[in-house]
């Protein structure tokens, strides 16, 4: 097993299985030291639970609430010449630790958009859980197959009206360079909404409800990002934002549709986190360097597990009801959006450029780089890479 990580741009071509296992173990340890979820769900389906926010949600509910979990993710198993993806090893690690504690943990690897996967999941729920009382929807992908094999929708990372140039950070070769995003046409906007909007979430809930596998008081949650005026051109004001607006509307629609079983659907607006998906977004990387530095200095920087557990324990399963804003959104992005933090970020970003971006006095590049490395199982404390 090699301890050398192979990265192309912002894509990790390999991972370290032992590091992945240790990283999952540390998230479990961290969640056990946080306040537990008193009224946690019993049986949870996570779509996209092998990494990022989905994995942290799964760990929060299982080890901070003793829930059984079924996870669907799209990951590559190892072969003789390939380590496979980090998510694959995260799943194995999760199963190992969950089973040690007598929790049911099952993983289905495959396409969550397919009819076959829906059927497989429903059969599993019927046989093993009877019903589920929570669905976490945390898929992040660029492609969604159209029904009946009619091709694919492809999401586009573009602006809406005018071009925007933002800095993109590549880990290998290590450099920062400007990237211009062009405005999307209507077809591109529509395709992005199809891939990252709420339609598939709605279909999943409907199909599970029709199959009568949703318990009374069922809850479902999906994740959004709004950010601030700094990130607006590249995120909420762009194609991804259109998809997230659709996701927000879907939560309201589902909330109504679930009323007969006293069910609820929410979107949680999360903070920016370094993940396999988020490192691709130009403009966001320099913002995240500044954000991480500022939040760390204020003692308000949350890891993925701390953030998702706050959402589960403090919002979704808050015994006094789920606190939301006037748009019925869970606002876990409060530390990030604090005007003092945003003003500081605006000032810091003005000083970050391609020659100094690694300098700790301008932003937390080292933290950003290390977190990326860690999601692939490298640079994890306690692992003997030799
Ligand atoms: P991630 O890349 O770490 O995880 C994505 C998950 O989706 C993985 O488990 C992957 O296997 C799974 N997946 C992708 N395509 C699939 C398919 N066809 N079938 C089955 N599984 C599939 O992504 P991350 O960052 O955790 O994002 C999850 C959600 O959270 C997304 O909706 C994202 O927009 C949202 N979000 C992310 C933030 C961030 O800063 N990372 C901030 C706020 C929201």
TrEMBL record:
Pathway: Lipid metabolism. InterPro entries: Eno_Rdtase_FAD-bd_dom, Enoyl-CoA_Rdtase_cat_dom, FabV-like_NADH_b, NAD(P)-bd_dom_sf, Trans-2-enoyl-CoA_reductase. It catalyses: a 2,3-saturated acyl-CoA + NAD(+) = a (2E)-enoyl-CoA + NADH + H(+). It comes from the Bacteria. One of its GO terms (biological process) is fatty acid biosynthetic process. Residues 324-386 form the Enoyl reductase FAD binding domain. This is trans-2-enoyl-CoA reductase (NAD(+)). It comes from Aliivibrio sifiae. The gene is fabV2.
